[in-house]
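SpoVT-AbrB domain-containing protein: structure, please.
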Amino acid sequence: MGKTTRKVQITGGSTFIVSLPPEWVKRNGITKGSEISISDDGNDLVISSSNPDLPEVSKKIIIPPNYTGKPLQRLLTSSYISGFDTLSIVSKEKMGSELRDDIKRFSKVVMGIEIIEETSKSVVLQNVLNVKTFPLSKAIRRMSLNVGTMIEDTIKAIEDYDEELFQNVIERDDEVDRYQWYIYREVKNHCQYEDSNVFMLVLSRILERMADHTVNICIAMKDRKAVNGRMEMIDNLKFSLDVYNHAVESFYSKNFKVLDGIINQKSEINERKFKLLKILSYDVVLSSIAEEISRIGLYGTDIAELAMDLILSDKLEFSVQ
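Here you go.
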């Protein structure tokens, strides 16, 4: 929850009191006689629960023994994003090796999940990672670094016709997904504590899409040895990477002065795309690469716009210097 307003009342002739938001009271388990902490921060008073730990969330899903593969992965991923401390996966009958292996594979794919108990009909997962031990700011930085290096290595793979490096970039997309699922989960469960968390969520979605476009370039290029317009392709991708790097830097530094310049590069990104399409003679596969490259650059300008939204989100007055 964001900021709220309460009227000050007086009791006993000299004691000033305000009521606590009922949502906050319920969320933190405050009852009559509970103690809260009050910190004096100059013009601000910071109120916090003396026991800030939320009650543990234990969930249970019951599945048939043949519920394996992608349906199971989707179910477990949604359960992960919804948030739990422990998740019991229970089969109506004895679990086969395929089902058990799928659950173990999932626990290795997502962040901070460990198997703590197994029986013939069940597997219990425990979450050991949250914003206290791994802050969202650190997660989003690592995610953005991964995307940046994926783009850099794609450029190098195109320059060197390196099929192994193309494949390596493709496989690293899973790491980006891991960060996005973690950010989704933690924003959902802790968004009331930081107003900026919603911006982290949007940024994670942009980064995930940029990783997907990078992978699409690698897939299209992996089996192509000779490509007309290869140098122009590399030049465009370097330009899009430059837009991305400046946009990410501005998001972290909240540097308002550079944002308009980044956002205004949309027109050049599109112009470069159409020039590249002409060079590629509108080849179906290669034309898709030109589109993927431009999308990476345009997502970079989206990050700059998001940075502007973040900077202005808590300002009642703002002066453009």
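Notes: The radius of gyration is 25 Å.
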